[in-house]
Design goal:
mainly alpha, 2 helices
Length: 76
């Protein structure tokens, strides 16, 4: 397992323990934790889409630069 994934699991476990301590209610803690997990998943999905879009833009720029370089080489 990656170190980042283990840290994420430990953080969620500590958060759920703190929620249980603060609310003193298993169901309320579970509800809050489920909402936080949903938000976490949505943020990961957004970040993945944003990174994919950025990578595609970078790839397109590199391909255009390579195409221009190859056209200059053939012209000479």
């Amino acid at each position: 397992m990656k170190k980042k994934a283990i840290l994420h699991i430990v953080l969620l476990a500590a958060l759920s323990a703190a929620l249980l301590f603060i609310t003193r209610s298993w169901w309320m803690s579970l509800g809050i934790l489920m909402i936080l997990l949903l938000i976490d998943a949505l943020l990961k999905q957004y970040d993945g889409k944003r990174r994919y879009k950025w990578e595609m833009e970078q790839r397109k720029k590199r391909e255009e630069a390579n195409r221009e370089n190859s056209e200059e080489d053939t012209a000479e």
